[in-house]
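From the pipeline queue, job 12 of 40. The input is one protein chain; the requested action is below.

Action: predict structure.
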Amino acid sequence: MVYYRRNRIPGGTFFFTVTLADRRSQMLVEHITLLRGAFRRVRRERPFQIDAVVVLPDHFHTIWTLPEDDGDYPGRWRAIKSRFTRAVRERDVPLISNAKGEYNLWQCRYWEHTIRDEDDLQRHVDYIHYNPVKHGLVKRVADWPFSSFHRYVRLGWLSLDWGSNLALSHSGDFGE
């Protein structure tokens, strides 16, 4: 069995990409209230800060900062995925199960990157907010409703037209 090394840094800041097993699915945006509910419940039980997030039909990107004494993001991801899957099943949404009786809603793993410094954080926040444009879902960042971009605008950190003339030239693999 392959064991993945996770960089569990108490109080660390991390970029994640979490993906559905079926990349053609629209499940995340079709059931956005259930996904938000799963996040809220887990955050109440095991606090963490969401620094940025974008939810697309089949995957999402997010940046979290964990509490100073806690580096367990894998446990939080298990709980979020489990709560969302359970909530979807309670709505009688058909899901396929595997031989073990587990639902094949999510890809087994997720992409994680430890944020190294402020520049790295800014590059990843920009990537998150521009992602719906990158995927051709909207022409303007402001037109995608499932993004922390709107919170950044309310707080005065970004203007409503941010990204209009942006050509993200970030090199590197952001987990897609």
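Job complete. Residues 13-116 form a domain with the Alpha-Beta Plaits fold (CATH 3.30.70.1290).
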